[in-house]
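Retro notes, structure queue

What went well: the backlog is down to a handful. What didn't: a couple of records were mislabeled last round, so from now on we paste the full input next to the output in the thread. Example, using Membrane-binding protein from Methanolobus chelungpuianus:
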Amino acid sequence: MQTKWLLVLVVAVLALAVSGCTGSDDETVTYEEDGVQYEYSASGDSQDDWCPVGSSWKSSNPSTGEDVSMEITGSEVIDGVEMCKAQFNSNNPDDEYARIDYMWSEDGNRFNWKYYDADGKLVSEMTMKDGHMRFVAEDGTVTEYNTNT
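Corresponding output:
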């Protein structure tokens, strides 16, 4: 189940990132599939095509009470690079993560994912900066890769 929602999150982030602003009006699309309700909202007030602040995605399953959502919450400058910020939330007890904080640069060369459990404890983190990828596991184990070689 966790892999399914992570895939949905990645697709939603990409869709929101490339959707941009199509005018001054907010746009909301809702649909239902296999008993699950989906809602996608794009904010027309966003000034940045690559970071449409206020845009969101939500999935609800009325039969299980499960809710999964993602919202682009803003941007932040880190080391001189503007990063778009999004937050993913899930109340599904089968998911390993209840919240994921995600930041990415416009060119996609930098990103940061922080995974939290239902108690708000940081479970793991993955970052990419200047061709250097770093994973920090829950037990503190650090794995690093250089993608420039």
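Agreed that this is the format going forward. Reviewer comment attached to the example: The first helix runs from residue 2 to 19.
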